[in-house]
Amino acid sequence: MTDHFFDSMSEPSEVKSEIVRKYFWAWAKIIGPQARKRTGGRMPYVDLFAGPGRYKDGTKSTPLLILERAIAEPDISEMLVTRFNDKDNAESLQREIGLLAGVDKLASKPVVTSLEVNDHLADSFRSWNIPTLFFVDPWGYKGLSLRLIKTLLRPWGCDCIFFFNYNRINAALSNPVFKENMNSVFGTLRAETLRGKLVGLDKFQRQDLIIDELKAALAEHGGKYTREFCFLDSDGKKTSHFLICVSKHPLGEKIMKDIMAAESSRTDHGVPSYVYTPTSDEQPSLFDAEDPISGLKASLLKDFAGRTLTVKQVFHAHHAGKRFVERNYKDALRALEFEGKVLTKPPPDERPVRNGVVTLADSVQVTFPK
After folding, report:
1. Domains of the chain by range and CATH?
2. What does each C-alpha distance from 324 to 14, 253, 260, 267, 273 come to in angstroms?
3. Helix or strand or coil: residue 70?
4. Residue 2, pLDDT above cutoff 60
5. Of 82, 95, 153, 211, which has the fewest beta carbons less than 10 angstroms from its beta carbon?
6. What is the 3-state secondary structure (H, E, C) of 175-238?
7. Which uninterrupted H or E stretch holds 111?
8. Using an 8 Å Cβ cutoff, are 26 and 259 in contact?
9. Cβ-contact 271, 260 below 8 angstroms
10. Distance CA 261, CA 326 (A)
11. Tens digit of pLDDT for each residue in 57-86?
12. 36, exposed or middle or buried, with CB in 10 Å at 0-12, 13-18, 19+?
């Protein structure tokens, strides 16, 4: 880690923290009622690379912000169980937590440890059987392994958000010195196959393949629903890293897509890019040459040919693994309706108009031609 990383919070770190905090809150609201019934009211949040708690300029980092939100909400403060780990910054983090106003309102005192994150630590979670949100944010990739993610996702209700240092992992995949490290991240067989597939690819094809293989590996170990968010470097021209959310439930992906969509630096014809760039004058990518909604329309006509579904059913049956959010589906269905390519019930002239646009409620039935 660079000596100045914790001097002040960078814009990418701020975006990353915002995504994690928003997801924690949404996750807690959904899991909370079930946790009361099934775990005696325990609902853990675990951060394995938690940092010192504050940057040198006084800015609070994610652990303190999570705790502050919990302190302010009695329903959460009585259930939340927190474990923060950082091999190098545990003492500072413990001190900052102790200084938080109202920390005594938490039913469970936050636990701070200074353990090395490795497969031995992963094994310590094997008996874990409580719905937990895990955050894994290593500086590079040391400590990040497929075995760790698999173990963390095993119990019901567990989701994981982790930092994927694409820039370093991309280089390491082509360097035999880091063979074992990459085998740990992707799994030995997949990593070996991936190295062969990468030969001759350009940087865009290479990135797509690496992320696709990572997601396939996660799916094999329970993480069926994933959503990645890309951070570009300071020039806005090269991928630096990804923040990846892994869930066993489609609702987890849906929530994370909405959160990441709001943090995207731009959209492509209304479709979120899931990319953060620190530059304000980013040039459109080649992807912008085509309207992605047109592709969505074609896909819907093909995938649902001859079927009748509600708008809500169309979205839930189709969105997993795709970059489109709910409003994109409604835009696509409105366009198909206007073009006469689908039939709706009730039809447009029987539905309310708001802000000059005919509404398309979740319950509206859509019939696709054969």
Report:
1. 11-276 (3.40.50.150), 290-367 (1.10.10)
2. 24, 11, 11, 11, 9
3. helix
4. no
5. 95
6. CHHHHHHHHHHHCHHHHHHHHHHHCCCCHHHHHHHHHHHHHHHHHHCCCCEEEEEEEECCCCCC
7. strand 111-113
8. yes
9. no
10. 11
11. 999 999 999 999 999 999 899 999 999 999
12. middle
Q: What is the pLDDT of residue 274?
A: 96
Listed residue (97, 80, 86, 84) closest to 47, CA to CA: 84
Give residue-wise pLDDT tens across range 335-347.
Answer: 999 999 999 999 9
Residues 6+ apart with CB under 8 A from 182: 169, 172, 173, 191
Rounded CA-CA distance 60/67 in Å is 11
Q: Which residues pair with 79 in a beta bridge?
A: none
Is the Cα dihedral 50, 51, 53, 54 positive or negative? negative
φ and ψ at residue 217, rounded to 5 degrees: -65, -40
SS3 69: helix
One-letter amino acid for residue 240 of the chain: S
* Residue 355 DSSP one-character state: T
Q: Residue 338 — φ and ψ, nearest 5°?
A: -65, -35
Q: Do the Cβ atoms of 360 and 353 come closer than 8 Å?
A: no
User: CA-CA distance, 292 to 298, in Å (whole number)?
Assistant: 10
Rounded-to-integer distance, Cα 161 and Cα 246, Å: 6
Q: What's the pLDDT tens digit per position in 170-195?
A: 999 999 999 999 999 999 999 999 99
